[in-house]
Write a structure and sequence with these properties.
The protein has strands spanning 2-4, 9-11, 23-29, 38-44, 52-57, 77-82, 93-94, 97-98. It is mainly beta and 110 residues long. The chain has two domains: 2-44, no CATH class; 48-110, no CATH class. Strands 1-2 form a two-stranded antiparallel ribbon. It has a two-stranded antiparallel sheet with strand order 3-4. It has a two-stranded antiparallel ribbon with strand order 5-6.
């Protein structure tokens, strides 16, 4: 424990934080005998960046990431993100411009 107990400051330092440290911590103060303890909670959420991201499709591809479909056809692209915590926010872009999608919106390529 760190801090300055003489002035009432008691610090808990967690070094090398891992997923196992994720959870609810509680500072509990025991007043005089026979009195209920006083508590304060601190919730620790450990953030983890994605370990991998892949783009794929149900369409056959001669090369990874290259998809060819005929005009008027439909193509579904999938973005798989693993290892992110909390879940990653994914944004599709076309030629560097964000694709606006929502609900049942279908993006049509001219």
């Amino acid at each position: 424990m760190l801090g300055d107990p003489g002035s009432g400051v008691h610090d808990l330092e967690i070094t090398n934080v891992t997923l196992e440290d994720d959870g609810r911590f509680q500072c509990q103060v025991s007043p005089n005998r026979g009195q209920d303890a006083i508590r304060a909670d601190a919730i620790l959420t450990v953030l983890v960046k994605p370990t991998s991201v892949t783009a794929s499709s149900t369409s056959r591809s001669p090369r990874l990431g290259l998809y060819e479909v005929g005009q008027g056809s439909q193509l579904t692209l999938r973005c798989d993100v693993t290892g992110a915590r909390p879940a990653a926010q994914v944004q599709w872009q076309r030629n560097g411009v964000p694709v606006q999608l929502g609900g049942s919106t279908v993006f049509t390529v001219d």
